[in-house]
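FAQ: What does the model actually see?

It sees only this:
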Amino acid sequence: MEHGSSGAQTAPSTPRAPRAGVRGRVHRLVREVAKFGAVGGAGVLVNLLVFNFVRQVSDLRVVRASIIATVVAIAFNYVGFRYFTYRDRDKSGQTREMSLFLLFSAVGLVIENGVLYTATYGFGWDSPLQSNIFKFLGIGIGTLFRFWSYRSWVFRALPAREPAATPAQTLLEPGPPTAVPRADEAPAVHR
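And it is asked to produce this:
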């Protein structure tokens, strides 16, 4: 520690930017996962409610009812992700965004309903309880894929902005070199 003229101790002037940078990234990721989880949790609820409703009021087979429920949940989730979870992300290419969202959602739909299809038609587990368990399991596996793909490809982060310099930084940081005339030279006059 350094001592000033008043005898007070001052902290060493080593920057803590790397630790603060990592901490900031972890904090942002935790917030993103929490927001994704909130929208996704509501989407799971919508998915399961629509699935069970369709199964009760129609004669559709299990996987067809599940596909309908998944499509409704995909629409619900897009609104939640675009306007809540990723509202600060780039909005310039919404056609591209929607196309990629639908593509990756379709892959998630196949993953989710592939689990249910395998349980129902591969193992014969098709009671309402078993269908809900495997529907939920499929949603979980599909969600891992969706989280990765949405954050990596669909709702891309805006480029990082340079932090604004404080007045003290502006005065202390060297700027571009300026030509200073020597004492024996006359200043140049431009006409």
